[in-house]
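Quick one, tokens below. Sequence please?
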């Protein structure tokens, strides 16, 4: 019997004119065809249950073996239902010769019909399916018990498929235990993104991928929602705008949800749904607070069981949310029917949530009620915990909910705005808000002055750290530790958090200022305390910088450095902090080790992650490290112009820091290398002349001078300048530089005609490089002849030498001697005008496949802002298209080279 139109027959049908196809769902078809006695398809209205079953029957060729029984709305007559079942079974090939006809009669009993069916079907030998659609409409408890009897006692070849909007009482638990029950739920019926794409294509609707993704997210894969969107999009002039604005308040969606869901509920349930629609999530007690009733938990659980677009958020079924489109409809109905109650509902919600430990939601509802004073107090009370919990993005979103002029009138809010500007990288704006907060702090009520002073102290500490101002950081850290000893801090439980924050930020600043012993001590204390008090975000920040210390003290690929970097990354991934600058530092450390090991493609992956994560405007010290390692990588690849651009950018960035950066001398040393490798020894001499005597005496700078003297064919001068480095009188920061120095010494001695001394220097370089496999020491100034001769004379480092010599030619510092490399003549690309920090942030996303709208979402700015920055970028780069901008930026060293570049 071919099934007729069911109650949801139009939910997922193609909208292509003249087409009758549906989206094929082979995975679900396979589950429907399993050998289980009973299959239950339970999902909300519009989920596509009817169409799924119809298309399965058609595709499986079951038209003459499936009895289709649609249950009418509010069916309460068992006799009518069973006569329909009997008629449907007689309409199938297997049942036509077994099931006897029967006519309606006043005394005809449902139990008798079922017993008669069981007797008629006892001889059934061929597979037969009884498909009952809309079982939830079967209002007779007696009919349900009779159906249960047929399910349990039916012959083996009789299979049942029950489609329902919610579970009904049929004793199916016994079948579940016996493995005789297949269940297809709402989550199974949700359309995947691929299925949604197929639906739109079948309908002839062309939708850009970002718009399709947005619609899929808004509908949550709900079949009817997607179908209604298809109908509305036919001929729509702006599909992207439609997708962005599509909601449950759209007329066709609202009408469907009103008729099929909301109007079917009792007055009590409708009142709960409407009044709680102001919430992002709801629990029973919170619902009771908003309704004044006492049965909110039962109602919510009943709604969830009934598949009424209510979704449980936890295993205990305590917290719930509404389907996005249903929530839109409820909010629309609340504004239409009770607009005067919205503010009061937000106020009640804010009070309940604040009192039960949900500050972020409480603040948002205080803002929804436009109770700005309450919102500021709640945010001020909970900001330290949010900040120390790695929730800067949450704070930024909350602050965006205040009126633009509010910080000018509230010292506490001004201090919070200063912290937010710091997190966004706007140091000057942060200082302005900080001054505003300090001036207004005297007007803060006495009961909140201590809270505001703590807030100001934290912001001043963070600002000083980002400026690299070690004396100021030390002063603010001491002040915070003093605050931690006060009775108020002890009572609020913030004392240990203040100590931890002070120690870790002091250690970070000391590290970048090259005070490694102090940094190591303070970071160890801070990380230990962070673990004790359960502050993983502070632990994560400290671990990343401890890894950095290990990489400097020993080498970038020292086991401890790599281990701590991976610990920090694991913490970040576990807690969702992969956008934090500290994890970018961990990426940089891993990249640095790989660069020195000559594993340049692997290093590229990590450095790109770091570039996407660390914003130099927000964290100049960490940003400099990222650019520095990018320069090392390009130098190792032989892309000397790109390396030079990176080192110059790093040197400029060092200028914003209050104290010399840990890596500054290494940056300047590599910059000299890049100039020499480009054949521009004159500019290298000029750069060298700009250094003070003390800087020129640093080990890394002496190594760079030796490279310069070799390029000038003056090996005697190169030997003289290298001697203090080799003797330890001019130490280097990182041990692997010393391996490089000895390899240069080997080249120098070979040039001076002393092969024995050259051999000793090669041996020493190999000794230093082998523990960490630091191949970069042998790649920047290639000397394969020396290595081959050493391998013949001494077998001690044969494996390491073989590995060095086996590296692809492109890894050998570009494979060309310095004198054969091009210079930086007048044809070198130049920017028309320097890029702003905001333009640089947008530039980072141009090589990706993200649309302008998606870039805006990533950066938390408007689409118009991104488009404006892109226009400015094109003008400054002198290009007209996005692809041209990427190519130009790469040529200028503003972007990493393409991974596909030779």
């Amino acid at each position: 019997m071919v099934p007729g139109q069911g109650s949801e027959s139009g939910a997922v049908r193609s909208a292509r004119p003249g087409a009758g196809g549906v989206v094929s769902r082979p995975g679900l078809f396979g589950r429907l065809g399993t050998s289980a006695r009973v299959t239950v398809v339970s999902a909300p209205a519009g989920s596509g249950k009817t169409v799924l079953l119809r298309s399965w029957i058609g595709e499986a060729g079951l038209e003459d073996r499936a009895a289709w029984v649609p249950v009418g709305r509010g069916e309460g007559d068992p006799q009518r239902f069973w006569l329909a079942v009997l008629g449907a079974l007689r309409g199938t090939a297997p049942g036509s010769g077994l099931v006897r006809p029967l006519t309606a009669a006043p005394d005809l009993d449902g139990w008798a019909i079922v017993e008669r069916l069981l007797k008629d079907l006892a001889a059934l030998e061929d597979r037969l399916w009884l498909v009952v659609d809309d079982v939830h409409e079967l209002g007779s408890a007696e009919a349900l018990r009779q159906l249960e009897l047929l399910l349990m006692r039916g012959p083996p070849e009789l299979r049942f498929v029950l489609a329902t909007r919610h579970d009904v009482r049929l004793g199916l638990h016994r079948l579940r235990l016996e493995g005789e029950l297949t269940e297809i739920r709402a989550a199974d019926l949700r359309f995947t993104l691929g299925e949604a794409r197929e639906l739109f294509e079948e309908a002839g609707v062309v939708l850009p991928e970002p718009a399709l993704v947005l619609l899929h997210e808004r509908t949550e894969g709900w079949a009817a929602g997607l179908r209604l969107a298809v109908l509305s999009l036919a001929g729509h002039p702006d599909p992207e705008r439609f997708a962005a604005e599509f909601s449950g308040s759209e007329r066709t969606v609202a009408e469907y949800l009103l008729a099929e869901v909301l109007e079917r509920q009792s007055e009590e349930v409708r009142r709960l749904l409407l009044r709680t629609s102001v919430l992002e999530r709801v629990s029973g007690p919170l619902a009771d607070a908003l309704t004044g009733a006492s049965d909110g938990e039962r109602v919510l659980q009943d709604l969830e069981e009934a598949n009424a677009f209510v979704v449980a958020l936890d295993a205990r079924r305590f917290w719930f949310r509404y389907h996005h489109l249903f929530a839109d409809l409820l909010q629309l109905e609340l504004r239409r029917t009770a607009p005067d109650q919205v503010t009061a509902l937000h106020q009640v919600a804010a009070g309940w949530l604040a009192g039960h430990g949900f500050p972020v939601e409480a603040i948002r509802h205080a803002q929804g009620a436009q109770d700005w004073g309450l919102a500021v107090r709640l945010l001020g009370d909970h900001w330290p915990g949010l900040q120390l919990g790695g929730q800067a993005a949450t704070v930024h979103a909350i602050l965006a909910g205040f009126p633009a002029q509010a910080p000018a009138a509230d010292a506490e809010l001004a201090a919070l705005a200063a912290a937010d500007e710091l997190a966004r990288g706007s140091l000057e704006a942060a200082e302005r808000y900080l001054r505003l907060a300090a001036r207004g702090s005297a007007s803060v009520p006495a009961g909140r002055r201590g809270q505001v002073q703590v807030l100001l102290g934290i912001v001043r500490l963070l600002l000083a750290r980002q400026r690299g101002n070690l004396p100021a950081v030390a002063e603010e850290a001491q002040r915070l530790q003093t605050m931690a000893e006060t009775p108020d801090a002890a009572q609020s439980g913030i004392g240990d958090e203040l100590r931890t924050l002070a120690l870790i930020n002091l250690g970070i600043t000391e590290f970048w200022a090259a005070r490694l012993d102090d940094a190591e001590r303070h970071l160890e204390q801070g990380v230990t305390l962070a673990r004790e008090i359960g502050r993983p975000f502070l632990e994560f920040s400290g671990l990343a910088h401890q890894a950095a210390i290990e990489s400097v003290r020993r080498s970038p690929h020292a086991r401890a450095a790599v281990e701590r970097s991976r610990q920090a990354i694991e913490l970040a991934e576990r807690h969702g902090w992969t956008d934090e600058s500290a994890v970018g530092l961990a990426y940089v450390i891993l990249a640095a080790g790989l660069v020195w090991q000559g594993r340049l493609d692997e290093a590229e992956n990590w450095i790109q992650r770091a570039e996407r994560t660390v914003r130099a405007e927000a964290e100049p010290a960490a940003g400099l490290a990222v650019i520095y390692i990018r320069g090392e990588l390009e130098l190792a690849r032989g892309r000397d112009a790109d390396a030079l651009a990176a080192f110059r950018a790093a040197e400029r960035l060092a200028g914003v820091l209050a104290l010399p950066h840990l890596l500054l001398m290494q940056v300047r040393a590599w910059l000299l290398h890049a100039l020499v490798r480009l054949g521009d020894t004159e500019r290298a001499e000029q750069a060298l002349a700009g250094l003070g005597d003390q800087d020129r005496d640093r080990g890394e700078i002496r190594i760079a001078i030796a490279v310069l003297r070799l390029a000038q064919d003056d090996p005697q001068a190169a030997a003289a300048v290298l001697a203090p480095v080799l003797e330890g009188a001019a130490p280097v920061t990182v041990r692997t530089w010393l391996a490089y120095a000895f390899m240069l010494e080997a080249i120098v001695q070979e040039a001076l005609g002393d092969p024995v001394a050259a051999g000793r220097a090669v041996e020493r370089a190999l000794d230093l490089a082998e523990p960490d496999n630091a191949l970069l020491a042998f790649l920047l100034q290639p000397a394969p002849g020396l290595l081959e001769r050493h391998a013949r004379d001494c077998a001690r480092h044969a494996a390491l030498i073989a590995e060095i010599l086996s590296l692809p030619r492109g890894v050998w510092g570009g494979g060309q001697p310095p004198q054969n490399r091009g210079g930086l003549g007048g044809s070198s690309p130049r920017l028309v005008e320097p890029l702003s920090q905001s333009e640089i942030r947008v530039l980072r996303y141009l090589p990706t496949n993200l649309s302008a709208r998606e870039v805006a979402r990533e950066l938390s700015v408007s689409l118009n802002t991104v488009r404006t920055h892109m226009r400015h970028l094109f003008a400054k780069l002198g290009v007209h298209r996005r692809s041209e901008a990427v190519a130009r930026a790469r040529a200028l060293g503003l972007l990493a080279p393409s991974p596909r570049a030779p």
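Confidence is low (pLDDT under 50) at residues 1-21, 809-829. Residues 446-467 form the longest helix (22 residues).
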